[in-house]
Amino acid sequence: MASLAPSFGSGAMTNSFTDMKNANVILIGGNNTAECHPLAMRWVLEAQKRGAKLIVVDPRFNRTAKVADIYAPVRPGTDIGYLGAIVKYIFDNKFYDEEYIKAHTNALYKVNPTFAFNDGLFSGYNPQGGPYKKDSWTYQLGLDGLPLKADALTDPDCVLMKLKEQFKDYTFEKAYEITGMPVDKVKLVAETFVKNRPGTILYALGMTQKSVGVQGIRMYAIIQLLLGNMGMAGGGINANRGEPNVQGSTDMAALAHILPGYMPMPSDALPTLNDYVKAVGTAKAKKTIALLKAWYGDKATPENEFGYHHIPKRSAKESAAKYVPIFEKLNQKAFEMGFIFAQNPAVSTPNLDMVWRGLSNLDLLVVAEIFETETASFWQHPDVNPKDIQTEVILLPAAMAFEKAGTMTNSARWVQGKPAAVPAPGEAIPDGDMIYEIMNRVKELYANSSDPKDKAILDLTWHYEAPGHEGIDMEMVLKEMNGYDLATGKLLDTGSQIAKAEPGTVSSGLGGLYTGVITEEGNHSLRHDNSDPSSLGIHPKWTFAWPNNTRVLWNRGSVDKNGQPRDKDRALVWWNGTSWVGNDILDVAAKDKGPDTPEGSKVFSTGEGKGALFRAVYKQPQKDAPELTLNPGYDPNIFKVAPVITEPGIADGPMPAHYEPIESPVQNPMFKQQSNPMMRPLELQEIQKSGDAKDFPYVLTTYMVTEQFLSGGVTRNTPQLNELMPSNFAEISTTLAKKLGVKSGDPVTISTARGKVTIDAMVTERIQTLKVDGKDIEVIGVPWGWGYKGLVHGESINKVTNSAADPNTGTPEYKACSCNLTKGGN
Amino acid sequence: MPKLSRRSFMKFTAASVAASALAQKRAYAKTDDNNKAFPLMTAGAATSYGICHFCSVGCGIEVKVKGNELISTEGFIDHPINQGALCPKGRSLKEMHNSELRLTHPLVRKPGGNKWEPISWDEAIDKIAKKVKDVRDKSFTKTVDVNGNTVTVNRTEGIFSLGSAEIDNEEVYLYTKFNRALGVHHYTHQAEV
Ligand code: SF4
């Protein structure tokens, strides 16, 4: 994920659900585990049974808070305020793990002396707008291009001191002023989390759906690095993701800025493959070439840059995020045709008017679904006349999970396979087969073309039929993803084979990310051996975890400088004198290199090989790069001269800072800079409106309930769940209810600059009036997955939420916007 | 390329039934519930395996099948995470398969129309493929000028694609491959929001 990768080198839940029992303290901030990931809660409770302390930070006293040892309220969107106080507390008391941060983070690296941070703005800010100029967000480099290291952690130039300086004003009192979390609570949370190690942190959309989503999670990364919790059983950062296969779909890069396996998408700033290798580094470029070999087979040659130009190049000037921009562009009539597979944006998009109006500008919309959704039936929206909508909609019936063979990747990176258990109803087929058939038909239409632009389609490898299969054989697809040694035709065993191979001699549709999932030995995604010899919840033979079946990421961090476990009861890997062995598979470091060598001591896969307390812009240089003149396009010698790994930095700063949500009733207590200065300007002035606190004095936040899943496309069609959760509600505090004369069950109207919805009130103690900066702040909470299709209906709160988004990920700020609430219907 | 016809869909269905017959052979438990006075609902059912299709915890599910019907979805005892337990959503999954509300045939809503009408798979795929070619050819950008240099970009501007975190890995992989080969660069899904 966009926040963990700059800190550690790649981004995903670092440990696993079954590992949580090993924690001595668990901080849940931005995830209502009991409600939204109920069986993950099993392992939180197991930890608690074994003596761990559970801390829950949330605007509401939710179901998870109910069983917490410490519950602390927080104003939506302000987490960096209290997390900053934890960082200051660690510094003030020197509670950081000195050996760990010296060895495994960039704490000692000297920062460019021109780097600065003033009143909420980093050096390189352009008041005329546009991105930060990042040339001061760098290290002081030696002649070899490597960062200079300070002699001591007290050197004012070093990263650690920059970090200390950045958070020096985040006192417990300041944290209270920002977040509304009482001073003694901030202190208790800080003490409890810092003094019990290992500790783990759980988050989900409660952390990402903010205009400072990435920086909030960077706070988690910084805290866990300082405390030496990364790579430990019972430590790490456990991102509990949303949909059943969102980890998998992220790995498969259903995103604008990456290719499957997390290699950067080519852009128009990188006209040739040589340019691409130079920009992304040799490590990732080798993976991209393996992907091109999987996609274009023998047609991918050094002469045609392995088909580099068959893949569209995104515009380097445009935002890498695409979700909100797609709906903006729809309203600007930029598209004639759209595909929407298994997604319901007509409920899940903020500022829903963008969707209603936008989709009706299409000629043809293709939707693949299990049930009829609001998206497929956008032309049935109660406020429109279908006659006025000229869009043709084709709705394709899809098979559901039990009706098709395939794999899904859970949040903990476990790639789990399953067979087809029942036939799909009627003519429904798997989404994969639909895509397969459409591409086949498109290939037929282009069959006689000699236009070079159509080579991307005609040369594409697309053969997934096997004898005995009607429809496609998903295992053939999995094999392509896993990859082959092209000389022997054998399936690859590990991703490191791609790193070692000559580019063009190996293939892998995921650049090696899942390599090992299916080998000559068999399909590991189907393994059902649940044994756990270490009793640490590793289950090494249960299905397969990427990368390389490693269950705890960065686990080389769990040992001391002699390569022995720092915590004997939580031993993951260790050096036995000749190689690394253990209960888990060693991550990142070289298996046969001792703990005192550079290759054997590497914990993280960032450009520096260190955990990034400060996310500098950096390129790891090639050792002993020769002076060479390269042939244009692609020259294999590029791999001798290009940097190995490059770190492009984070859009909104190398370290976090507290900014207010885009709509907020509070003046930023920290700086003159009110909100994230890197916000992408919104395109549709008549739809994407912004409101003022004087008209919209309350804070609106949204979430999910156990029984209604996400947009409700499935669960609102499931009678037994609808019996449990038949309608939507708006949670309001007893104070506000009294003030407005509202009782539970009364309809209330929630309005923002973007419109109004009517929902029944639920007056509750679970939300308390917060004191912020001397003012009373009321928070309104509304579950979001409602619409007008399915068996139960309700107005969707996303009609009024804000489409302003995090500048790195494009994730909109669903979790905090300004609203008003009045008694009675709309 | 085999044309999708009603006949091939019948075969498709037959293949899935074969899969469920396979599952039957692999049944984990043999019961003699039939001897009881009140046989269990699951008596005589084939057992297969599934993964919960809701949240990302990835609970294992024991799936019991009789004919085309899913008769029970219970937590898979051996799964290391859920150890036989499920939340209400996981428990409800059999309804997702059995529901009368499932989409069973391709449908089309014509421009300005106020209802869904049936369309054959063949016709639907044909319409989609032709429109892809038409829009792609019309809206294709081969090169752009970047600071005076002509850069090959091969972008299709007129098509966007969304989805999905709700389908299997192999399927999203194919979807990404499909979109990139077409030149689609307005492409994202649930993970971004
Ligand atoms: S059963 Fe519940 S907790 Fe388990 S994966 Fe399904 S939704 Fe998640």
Automatic annotation (TrEMBL), chain A:
Keyword list, A-Z: 4Fe-4S, Iron, Iron-sulfur, Metal-binding, Oxidoreductase
Ranges for domain Molybdopterin oxidoreductase: 11-440
Chief location category: other
UniProt GO MF annotations: 4 iron, 4 sulfur cluster binding; electron transfer activity; molybdenum ion binding; molybdopterin cofactor binding; oxidoreductase activity
Location(s), subcellular: Cell envelope
Pfam families: Molybdopterin (PF00384), Molydop_binding (PF01568)
GO cellular component: cell envelope
InterPro entries, alphabetized: Asp_de-COase-like_dom_sf, MoPterin_dinucl-bd_dom, Mopterin_OxRdtase
One BP annotation, GO: anaerobic respiration
Entry cofactors: [4Fe-4S] cluster
Gene3D superfamilies per record: 2.40.40.20, 3.40.50.740, Dimethylsulfoxide Reductase, domain 2
Domain Molybdopterin dinucleotide-binding: 699-817
Family: Belongs to the prokaryotic molybdopterin-containing oxidoreductase family.
Protein name: Formate dehydrogenase subunit alpha
Lineage: Bacteria, Bacillati, Bacillota, Bacilli, Bacillales
Automatic annotation (TrEMBL), chain B:
Gene3D superfamilies documented for this protein: 3.40.50.740, ADC-like domains
Protein name, UniProt field: Formate dehydrogenase subunit alpha
Cofactor(s) needed for function: [4Fe-4S] cluster; Mo-bis(molybdopterin guanine dinucleotide)
Domain of life: Bacteria
Main location: other
Keywords: 4Fe-4S, Iron, Iron-sulfur, Metal-binding, Oxidoreductase
Cited PANTHER family: FORMATE DEHYDROGENASE-O MAJOR SUBUNIT (PTHR43598:SF1), TUNGSTEN-CONTAINING FORMYLMETHANOFURAN DEHYDROGENASE 2 SUBUNIT B (PTHR43598)
InterPro entries per record: Mopterin_OxRdtase (IPR006656), Mopterin_OxRdtase_4Fe-4S_dom (IPR006963), TAT_signal (IPR006311), TAT_signal_bac_arc (IPR019546)
Organism: Neobacillus vireti LMG 21834
Compartment(s): Cell envelope
GO terms assigned for molecular function: 4 iron, 4 sulfur cluster binding; electron transfer activity; molybdenum ion binding; oxidoreductase activity
UniProt cross-references to SMART domains, sorted A to Z: Molybdop_Fe4S4
Keyword presence, Iron: yes
Protein family per UniProt: Belongs to the prokaryotic molybdopterin-containing oxidoreductase family.
Any one cellular-component term (Gene Ontology): cell envelope
Single biological process term from Gene Ontology: anaerobic respiration
Pfam families attached to this UniProt entry: Molybdop_Fe4S4, Molybdopterin, TAT_signal
Residue ranges occupied by any 4Fe-4S Mo/W bis-MGD-type domain in the UniProt entry: 45-101
NCBIfam families: TAT_signal_seq
